[in-house]
Write a sequence for this structure.
């Protein structure tokens, strides 16, 4: 079954407009989810809003949004009033400006979405905006109402489509100087640098989505499968405690490089012939 459309509207650049549709680029559909149960009866527990003063349940039609203005006073807004303040950005992605692709740090990226043309007529306009951004090495910046708030968004070309990222608000990203400011800026030892570089080189591989797998999810599924079969799930070993002894960085790196060699040679077809073993007497004589 095809997923339901998440958002429909228009992509606009100056006088060029085309209808578009958008879907979240990520999904949590396969995530293991739990229900809260009554341990005694085995029945599901139901959540309901109750009046904070009377403890009486509230019907859905009686729920309203309120903005606190005093100790126990609220400004009440109904759905129609909230809808009346909707902005043009609710249904139109108007690209206001462009910026170099690498000028926005990854820390500002929030949620990714796939943006596609919604009909064959608007496909040419969509494609020319996409290809022009790719050719100039830029991304588009706009604003869009998503998740009940207007947000800055970034549009980046990808393959035949566009990825729309919501960007975090300025107050959400903390100043890195508050956390990195006390780290020393001394030049690192050249020997350590060369060893670390070699270790990185040994472990460098092309990106594969399996690198971002979720081992906790896999263990949960294993546990659920075992319990379905009436088996007792195997207990996992606890994580080792953080070592308290001080280890020489240089010695640790040398040992790491040595341990990488067998990993790199695994899967090799040709093997060096084994050296003949010497007897103890022959070894003693050679010394």
């Amino acid at each position: 079954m095809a997923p339901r459309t998440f958002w429909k509207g228009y992509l606009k650049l100056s006088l060029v407009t085309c209808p578009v549709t958008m879907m979240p680029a990520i999904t949590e559909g396969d995530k293991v989810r739990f229900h809260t149960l009554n341990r005694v009866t085995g029945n599901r527990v139901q959540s309901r809003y109750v009046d904070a003063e009377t403890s009486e349940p509230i019907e859905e039609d009686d729920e309203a949004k309120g903005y606190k203005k005093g100790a126990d006073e609220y400004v009440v807004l109904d759905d129609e009033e909230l809808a009346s303040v909707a902005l043009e950005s609710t249904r139109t992605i108007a690209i206001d400006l462009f910026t170099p692709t690498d000028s926005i740090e990854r820390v500002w990226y929030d949620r990714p979405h796939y943006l596609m043309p919604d009909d064959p007529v608007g496909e040419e306009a969509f494609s020319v905006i996409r290809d022009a951004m790719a050719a100039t090495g830029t991304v588009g910046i706009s604003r869009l109402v998503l998740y009940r708030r207007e947000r800055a968004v970034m549009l980046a070309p990808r393959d035949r489509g566009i990825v729309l990222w919501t960007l975090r608000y300025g107050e959400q990203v903390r100043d890195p100087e508050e956390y990195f400011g006390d780290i020393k800026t001394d030049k690192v030892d050249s020997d350590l640098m060369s060893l670390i570089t070699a270790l990185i080189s040994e472990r460098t591989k092309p990106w594969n989505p399996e690198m971002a797998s979720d081992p906790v999810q896999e263990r949960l599924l294993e546990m659920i499968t075992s319990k379905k079969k009436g088996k007792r799930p195997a207990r996992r070993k606890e994580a080792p405690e953080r070592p308290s002894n001080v280890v020489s960085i240089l010695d640790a790196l040398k040992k790491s490089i040595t341990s990488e060699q067998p990993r790199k040679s695994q899967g090799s077809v040709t093997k060096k012939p084994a050296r003949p073993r010497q007897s103890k007497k022959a070894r003693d004589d050679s010394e």
In short: The domain at 7-27+87-172 is CATH 2.40.290.10 (Ku70; Chain: A; Domain 2). Confidence is low (pLDDT under 50) at residues 267-287. Residues 249-265 form the longest helix (17 residues). The helical segments are 79-83, 123-136, 177-180, 190-203, 215-228, 249-265, 280-286.
